[in-house]
Structure formats: C-alpha cells, structure tokens
Amino acid sequence: MNHSYQQVPPAYSETTAIPVSGDDGTENIFKVDDFVSESSLSVRMAFVRKVYSILTIEIFATIAWILLLQNKPSMQIWFFQNQWLIIVSFLSAIISLIILLFKSKSFPSNFILLSVFVSSESIVLGYVTSTYSQIVVLQALLITLGIFIALTVFTMQSNYDFSDLGPMLIFGLWGLILVGIVQIFVPFSSSLEFVICIFGVLIFCGLIVYDTFLIMKKLTPEEYILASVTLYLDFINLFMYILRLLGNNDN
Predict the structure, then answer these.
(1) What is the per-residue pLDDT across 127-178, written as a single tens digit (0 to 9) for each?
(2) CA–CA separation, 166 and 104 (whole Å)
(3) What ranges do the domains of the chain cover?
C-alpha cells in the first residue's frame, strides 16, 4: 500500500512565557520556543530519545502484527472474507493521520490518535503482506531495518546540509503517486515494475535522510510525535517498495 507522504510542516508554536533578563536587568522579555537545533544539548537529547523510543514501538508493533498474520492462515482467510475491515482501517489511518498533524502537541489526544493510526496502518499492512511468502516478508523487513538504521546514523553524524534535497525528493514522490494511480488502471510489465520499485527505494532512502535532518531544524521539542510519525511513514513506504521488489523477483 502506498501512502501519500506528508512533508513535515513548519512549526507554528505558541509563544511561551519564558522570562529572560534584558539589558536593564528586568525580566519582561518573552521568548518563542526554539527549534530543536537551537535548544540546549539536554533538550536535544531528550527529543531524540522520545522520537526514537516512540518510533521503535510503532515499527515493532507493526512488525509483530505482520508476522502474526503470516503465521495464522486462518486469520488471513478471515481478512480476505471480510475486506470491509481493510477499507475501514485504511480510512481510519488517513483520517487519524490528518487530525494528528493538527493535534501533535495536544496530550493525550496525540497519543490516542497515534495509537489509532498505527493500529489501522498495521491492519492494512498485515493484509497486504499476507499475499507474499513469509521468507520474502522477513527479507524485506530485515533489509529495511538495516537501511533505516544506517541512514539514520549517517545523517546524525553528518554536518552536511541536506535541505537542498527537498524539492527533488518531493518531485520524485509526486511522480511515484502519479505512477501508482496509473498502475491501478493500466498494469505494468514486470520490468517496468522493477524500475519503479528501484526508484521508490531511492526516493524513500532520500526522504529518511532529509526528514531525519529536517525534524531537528523545523520542529520544536514538543513535536516529537509528529517527528516519529514522519519517520514511521518513511520506514513503511521503504519497506513496501523493497517488498514489492523482492516479491517481483520471487515471482
């Protein structure tokens, strides 16, 4: 399943009443929340811990559901016989994600919406991956995890400014969306499918780097939920393109 990628929106955070001393020693100056990159080291580290702790839970909850369904043929049959649940889950994932983008800093609404989104997304992914062999799914999961970790470490350790990648990646993403729409009506050959999957893998590898860089530059420390969802979507889409690529070769 392909999902429209949501580019991390600019953070429009409310002004926080944090008094700082002026030149005359008074405390009547108020400061707007800093972006993560402008915060102290302790704040940056706390933000990273929150983002990747939540992201780890999201990813492994989804993987657990996928593997459970892979080992329960009776559940697979039930889902194929009750496809209305897949449609409901798909719509639930989209709606909860849209609302979450506006409620990312509203506790506990953000965690409730996050749980609904990940649960709905996992149900749909479990249904889709059940059409592939277990070995192909495991290979795709391991490859995706390896690539994601490697790109994350690379980006965190690099001093390079990756913001210039944005326009090119977004252009490529819209290309993938357009191709996906066309593919619904006009099935592609296996060779063209292979090329599309390679392109999709490259785009989402780029987006993992770009978004990892961007969440530190464009989000405030309170927007850790939004950051984790952004990276989760990158992970899931990369996984799906790798799965399609391996599945195409397996077939």
Answers:
(1) 888 888 889 999 999 999 999 999 999 988 888 878 888 888 999 889 888 9
(2) 22
(3) 15-250
Sign of CA dihedral 37, 41, 43, 49: positive
Which pLDDT belongs to residue 21? Answer: 37
Total-model pTM? 0.79
Residue 83 amino acid letter: Q
Q: Are 213 and 163 in contact (CB under 8 A)?
A: yes
- The contacts found for 234-237 with CB under 8 angstroms, 24 or more apart, are 234/5, 234/148, 234/204, 234/207, 234/208, 235/55, 235/59, 235/144, 235/148, 235/208, 236/3, 236/62, 236/121, 236/125, 237/2, 237/3, 237/5, 237/200, 237/204, 237/207
CA distances from 150 to 45, 203, 212 (A): 19, 16, 12
